[in-house]
Amino acid sequence: MNKYILVAGAFFGLTAVVLGAFGAHVLKDSIGAENLKTFETGVKYQMYHALLLLLLGCTSFVSQGTKQLLLYLIVAGIVFFSGSVYGLATNSLTSFDFKKIALITPVGGLLLIISWGILLYNFIKIKIE
Predict the structure, then answer these.
(1) Which pLDDT value is given to residue 12?
(2) TM spans, by residue (predicted)?
(3) Which of 128, 105, 119 shows the shortest CA–CA distance to 52?
């Protein structure tokens, strides 16, 4: 399980850097300052959670079952939250109206919040010896 978590973390970290560079160099003049700021928010949250996955893959304080649950929640949260933010920020460049699916943004955010809550709970219940 740890290998999958680490691979997911590295993948989302890599794509966050690529998307950040894409936003800064390609989209900068195409989507406007406000939408670029929105796009950068998606990149930041993707990177934060890529780092969380790397931490999760390296810790022994969380059971494998909980790690698997967190992997699913975090991956879905990144895809829903950051993915929809990318779509909304670049909405003017596509023929698809991402505003129609804007409700998945808070769902993705909620999945990420739940992930952090589960992690916090697991860290709180660690017995100090």
Answers:
(1) 98
(2) 47-63, 70-89, 101-124
(3) 119
Counting the structural domains of the chain, the total is: 1
Asked if residue 104 is part of any domain, the answer here is: yes
Has residue 129 been placed in a domain?
A: no
Distance in angstroms (rounded) separating the CA atoms of residues 56 and 67: 7
Answer whether residue 70 is part of any domain. yes
Could you give the CA distance from residue 99 to residue 94 in angstroms, rounded to a whole number? 12
- Of the candidates 3, 2, 121, 120, the one whose C-alpha atom is nearest the C-alpha of residue 64 is 2
* Domain housing 80: 2-124
* Residue 111 to residue 103: CA distance in whole angstroms: 13
Those residues with Cβ within 8 angstroms of residue 88's Cβ, 6 or more apart along the chain or in another chain: 38, 98, 99, 102, 105
CA 70 vs. chain centroid, Å, equals 12
